[in-house]
Amino acid sequence: MEIQVMKNILGENDRVAAENQAMFAEKGIFVLNLMGSPGAGKTSLLEKTMAKLRDKVKMAVIEGDLYTSKDAERIDRYGVPVIQINTAGGCHLDAPMVQKVAQKLNLDELELLIVENVGNLVCPAEFAVGENEKAVVLSITEGADKPMKYPLIFKESAIALLNKVDLLPYCDFDMAGAKEDIDTLHPGMRVIEVSCSKGDGVDEWCEWLLSKVKK
Amino acid sequence: MEIQVMKNILGENDRVAAENQAMFAEKGIFVLNLMGSPGAGKTSLLEKTMAKLRDKVKMAVIEGDLYTSKDAERIDRYGVPVIQINTAGGCHLDAPMVQKVAQKLNLDELELLIVENVGNLVCPAEFAVGENEKAVVLSITEGADKPMKYPLIFKESAIALLNKVDLLPYCDFDMAGAKEDIDTLHPGMRVIEVSCSKGDGVDEWCEWLLSKVKK
Questions:
Q1: What is the CA angle B130-B161-B99, rounded to 5?
Q2: Residue A190 β-bridge partners
Q3: Exposure winner among A104, A120, A197, B178, fewest CB in 10 A?
Q4: Can you spell out the DSSP letters for A50-101?
């Protein structure tokens, strides 16, 4: 019975996600669903991304959070259009939420839309929002065992960003082991080492993003 | 309709949680529900706790994880009884899961049971498992904005452990601000600064735990 309910919810979400995807495709917008644990560095990565790309590509951001607009305020400083979704305690964004707020964006003027999901390494991976690709940010302070402990998000994502590498000297993080596990879960998956505070890897990440945007 | 389903699930969970609580109370066992983000340091804290307390108090651990038994293997090395629950992708433990595995423990021989929840700062706070108290581990690498972004887990917990304080010199973490936000969310809440790698705060935490165990 509970499984049945879950299937219905996911089925309805998939239907709306497909609608969203068609809507974004018609406008030629590349949509990224950006996921990761609380504090992995999703918003910091977005800040670096906007600083690099805001003059090169027409972008907008949808911010998911339980209650606050703290992240949206950080994005807003970069002059990039941003819309906040508050899930009121909900642990992930879903396709109907994104469909509702997408109407407030000028889609004809957009090339890139980044949806920053709720900080959670589990639930967001289960709910498509209409994206072209998913990306997962894992900070090295979380530990090298995390890919195997949270496999779905690595299987679903096109790219993994291993953030906070500036803290590697102070942490016991097995980089080779983590990369090997990620490759076991998702063979050939693109992995970039990133430091949002120092700037490492940000160029490579922005090049990947730009390669996805249709001109 | 979806809200109705959610209410039913939570209602049923609360009923079983009350059963668990009565069962543990009858045996005089203090039960702690230990929660936090992936990689916040819950298992590391348990390792330090077992090293300090295993000769002083009869303890056991229930480990929640999506798929692996990595954490249970770490606990097992300390010679403390440990049972693994794999949620098969589920984002939190619930009361029926704990009720089922508790039967495998020798409850007559126990004084302290720690339930390490799935790494997630959102969902576990919504589902009681039959605990006496909840505790939340937040690592300072996650950022000082997290209490306000994930308020429920701080409102529900009796104690907050701010872990990885050994990394404070390398991170931009506003300790005073974080503590102020926690006190706003949950006035008078006990907060301990901890470094599981260096040992800071572990004595204070173990004293708090011991004070809860009935002798």
A1: 15
A2: A159
A3: A104
A4: HHHHTTTS-EEEEEEESS--HHHHHHHTTT--EEEEE-TT-SS--HHHHHHH
Nearest to A170 among B146, B170, B172 (CB): B170
Structure tokens that stand for A86 in this block: 């508050």
As a whole number of angstroms, the distance between CA A83 and CA B85 comes to 39
Partner B contacted by A69 (CB < 8 A): no
For chain B, give the DSSP string: -HHHHHHHHHHHHHHHHHHHHHHHHHTT-EEEEEEESTTSSHHHHHHHHHHHHTTTS-EEEEEEESS--HHHHHHHTTT--EEEEE-TT-SS--HHHHHHHHTTS-GGG-SEEEEE--SBSSGGGG---S-SEEEEEEEGGG-TTHHHHSHHHHHH-SEEEEE-GGGGGGS---HHHHHHHHHHHSTT-EEEE--TTT-TTHHHHHHHHHHHS--
Identity of the residue numbered B142: E
Q: How confident is the prediction along chain A (215 residues), in pLDDT tens digits per residue?
A: 345 555 677 789 999 999 999 999 999 999 999 999 999 999 999 999 999 999 999 999 999 999 999 999 999 999 999 999 999 999 999 999 999 999 999 999 999 999 999 999 999 999 999 999 999 999 999 999 999 999 999 999 999 999 999 999 999 999 999 999 999 999 999 999 999 999 999 999 999 999 999 76
Does the distance separating the beta carbons of A37 and B67 come in below 8 Å? no
Q: What is the ipTM of this complex?
A: 0.92
How many contacts does A have with B, using Cβ atoms within 8 A? 114
Q: Enter the pTM of the model.
A: 0.94
- Measured between CB atoms, which of A38, A123, A166 is closest to B123? A123
Give the list of residues 6+ apart from residue B28 with CB closer than 8 angstroms, or none.
B111, B214
Give me the phi and psi of A135, to 5 degrees please. -130, 145
Are residues B119 and A121, on separate chains, in Cβ contact within 8 Å? yes
Q: Is B146 on the interface with A (CB under 8 A)?
A: yes
DSSP A171-206: S---HHHHHHHHHHHSTT-EEEE--TTT-TTHHHHH
Beta strands B112-116; B59-65: pairing state: parallel
What are A30's strand-pairing partners?
A: A112
